[in-house]
Amino acid sequence: MADTRKSEANTESATALRDVVKIVRLDEEAAAGNAVFYKNSDFLALRAKIENENGEREEKTWDRVFLHRAFPFDDPYRYISVLDKDQNEIGIIGDLRNIEPEIRKLLEEELERKYYTPEIKAIKQVKERYGFSYWKVETDIGPLQFTVQDTYRSILRVTPTRIFIVDMNGNRYEVPDLEALDRKSYRLIELYL
């Protein structure tokens, strides 16, 4: 009797675990013709035939989906999570190279829009006041100003010479090579490194 209960518990936990780790590969579904990404006005949308709880394929449409990179710095075009408007994962794109070129271009444009990051060429001024730092920088798109809260935690070092700065609105700015900065710029940022 105890063995039967233990066996039933193991079966239930295996089923629950299988449900938790179930991954829908949208690149494979797209290659098989079961998933289509398209523009819906200015938004990215998805229509896909995905297995439901009963194991049957069911066509669903999401009027708006969001892309999220699992490894935005190291592998920006692989392991892309596709989320619905409530931030629930629909599936994952294992590799954008598995998507047909026209759709891949659409997805890459969406990723570039979401992860747009101006490149800082020079730091003109950094002032601190009441736990905030106020930055004036020269970027590849021209002069910018932004505010950073908790500056030490808002500078992300990706490599010894490459950093990202995240402002209080969540915008990202990249310094691809600290060593390429002019002397004044480096002095202004080295306090936070």
What does this entry look like structurally?
This protein is α+β, with helices and mostly antiparallel strands and 193 residues long. It has two domains: 2-114, no CATH class; 120-190, no CATH class. The chain has five helices and twelve strands. It has helices at residues 2-20, 26-31, 101-114, 151-154, 183-190, and strands at 35-40, 43-51, 57-62, 66-69, 78-83, 89-95, 120-129, 132-139, 142-149, 155-157, 163-166, 172-175. The strands form four sheets. A three-stranded antiparallel sheet has the order 1-2-3. A three-stranded antiparallel sheet has the order 4-5-6. A hairpin with a 5-residue loop joins strand 5 (78-83) and strand 6. The longest helix has 19 residues, at 2-20. It starts with a helix and ends with a helix.
Question: First CA to last CA: what distance?
Answer: 63 Å
Number of helices: 5
Q: Please provide the count of β strands.
A: 12
Beta-strand proportion = 35-45%
Global outline: elongated
Mean pLDDT: 87
From the alpha-carbon coordinates, what is the Rg to the nearest angstrom? Answer: 23 Å
Across the major sheet, the strand order is 1-2-3
How can the largest sheet be summarized? Answer: 3 strands, antiparallel
- Return the structural class: alpha+beta
Q: Indicate the percent of residues in helices.
A: 25-40%
Low-confidence stretches: none
**Secondary-structure element series:** HHEEEEEEHEEEHEEEH
- Count of discrete structural domains: 2
